[in-house]
Amino acid sequence: MRKETSHPFLIAKDAQGDYRLTVRETRYNSQGYPLISANLQDERFRTANDARAFARANFRAQAGQFTTK
């Protein structure tokens, strides 16, 4: 059975000290091998909570779908 990645939203701090949101999407090839694409969003956030709020508003993210780096 295929299982989506449990954390499709990555919140990481960049070199300037801003938080950035990466949206990851998992697809599977014909042999069931996961193919993960990651898209870094253009927006920069002052706090990780601001990034979470953005993900909830724009990508319908839910609690438990976030990871930090």
Overview of this protein structure:
The chain has 69 residues and is of the alpha+beta class. The protein has one domain (9-68): Nuclear Transport Factor 2, Chain: A, CATH 3.10.450. Helix content is 17%, strand content 36%. It has one helix at residues 48-59, and strands spanning 9-13, 19-28, 34-40, 66-68. A four-stranded mixed beta sheet has the order 3-2-1-4.
Major sheet strand order = 3-2-1-4
Question: How many helical elements?
Answer: 1
Q: Which CATH top level class fits?
A: Alpha Beta
Order of helices and strands: EEEHE
Number of domains: 1
What is the approximate shape? elongated
CATH architecture: Roll
How can the largest sheet be summarized?
Answer: 4 strands, mixed
Q: How many runs of DSSP E, i.e. beta strands?
A: 4
Q: Tell me roughly what share of residues is in helical segments.
A: 10-25%
Radius of gyration: 13 Å
Unreliable spans are none
* Average pLDDT score: 92
Give the terminus-to-terminus CA distance: 28 Å
Beta-strand percentage range = 35-45%
Q: Structural class of the secondary structure composition?
A: alpha+beta
